[in-house]
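Morning run. Coffee first, then this:
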Amino acid sequence: MSPLEAIVAATRNGALASKALADYGTLERGKSADLLVLTADPIADIRNIRKLETVVARGGIVDLAALPTRRIWTRTTP
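And here it is:
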C-alpha cells in the first residue's frame, strides 16, 4: 500500500465504512474535520505523518506540548 493509499484508507475509507462519509472523511464545505498540518510531505515518506506543526481539533488549535510523548498503542515484541 502506498502512503497515499494508507492516508485515504484511514480517512475517506474509514468514514465510508462507518457510513459517515457525508459528515467527515474528506475536506469539504459543511463537513466536520480535525486537521493535521505537517512540516513534511507524508506522500513522499509515510513517516512524515508524525511531523506535526499544528493540530486543529473540534475547531481549536491543540497545544502540541500537551500531547502524549509515549506511544499509546505500541505492540511489544514477544
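Residues 3-10 form the longest helix (8 residues). Good start to the day.
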